[in-house]
Amino acid sequence: FRINMSEIIKLAELGKGNYGVVYKALHRPSGVTMAVKEIRLSLEEATFNQIIMELDILHKATSPYIVDFYGAFFVEGSVFICMEYMDVGSMDKLYVGGITDEGVLSRIAYAVLQGLKTLKEEHNIIHRDVKPTNVLVNSSGQIKLCDFGVSGNLVASISKTNIGCQSYMAPERIRVGGGGNGVLTYTVQADIWSLGLTILEMAIGCYPYPPDSYTSIFAQLSAICDGEPPRLPSCFSSEAHDFVNRCLQKNPSVRPGYQELSTHPWILKYQNSDVDMHTWAKANLESRAAGNIER
Ligand code: ATP
Ligand code: MG
Predict the structure, then answer these.
(1) Which residue, among 62, 70, 54, has the nearest Cα to 2 in the 3D structure?
(2) Can you tell me which atom of ligand 1 is nearest the CA of 93?
(3) Which residues line ligand 1 (CB under 6 A)?
(4) Catalytic amino acids?
């Protein structure tokens, strides 16, 4: 079915990113609660139409590790993307203090790997924006990816305008000049770097290249390119260290692929043991609800 603006009631703001706002919304005809992302862009109508057409292939990208796509449309200079609402939220809101339960971390890494693998193998899509805010959790304990670079026109339109202060870009992408050129050179290996950085951030509870410790964004980006890659603290297992270190190799050609990482000892260790993601997700939902009431 096709969704349009008149059928949607905005319920609450879920968050703001560098180029958009995400709302929790009700789709009246179906009664489905969804997340609607609004991206403001100054583009020709023809480009908007192309973006909507390109986004359409998301209807085919169904997987337990990818957020469901319901439809997209444009109104007055904005693209609206309607997707599955993930009630526990994004990882950046859940890792406060760091996730030290390696079972949980390993399951999250596995889910992200499966999502990335499906995108690449079944749809020939490279994510391009793997980071904690794009890894979402629901109260069933499912982990799903969102915001991948499915529309070339959309990727090109927003990368012109954005450079955030937390870069998950791999060193080789920073060197070629990020945004513009990066569109041509993006590889699966660049997503693997971002995955490593994401897992590390969730484990330690903060972005691994803290903005405060650099005098400028330039200095921070130089550290990613020229410095030693960041590491897990010693309290984590040797398997966890190995997984993260393999992802965070500065030479992209020696980073492992999805298949190798999916069968890494740190991943396999917890695939065969009970990790109660459902209880973990529920506990997070409850503590966030409690926090909201106090405020
Ligand atoms: P960037 O703009 O750099 O991509 P971002 O990912 O934080 O950063 P948005 O994609 O606009 O920005 O998302 C804003 C916030 O909305 C996210 O941080 C996330 O917490 C929330 N969010 C996004 N999509 C959903 C969803 N499907 N369900 C629930 N919450 C969501
Ligand atoms: Mg996002």
Answers:
(1) 70
(2) 20
(3) 14-20, 22, 35, 37, 67, 83-86, 89-90, 129, 133-134, 136, 146-147, 164
(4) 129
Note whether ipTM > 0.95 here. Answer: yes
- C-beta of residue 65 within 8 angstroms of C-beta of residue 143: yes
Closest ligand 1 atom to residue 84 Cα is 27
Full pLDDT tens readout for the chain, 295 residues: 689 999 999 999 999 988 889 999 999 999 999 999 999 988 888 999 999 999 998 998 899 999 999 999 999 899 999 999 999 999 999 998 999 999 999 999 999 999 999 999 999 999 999 999 999 999 999 999 999 988 888 888 887 555 666 789 999 988 765 444 444 467 899 999 999 999 999 999 999 998 888 998 889 999 999 999 999 999 999 999 999 999 999 999 999 999 999 999 999 999 988 899 999 999 999 988 787 654 4
Q: Is 37 a known ligand-binding residue?
A: yes
Look at residue 31 and give its three-state secondary structure.
coil
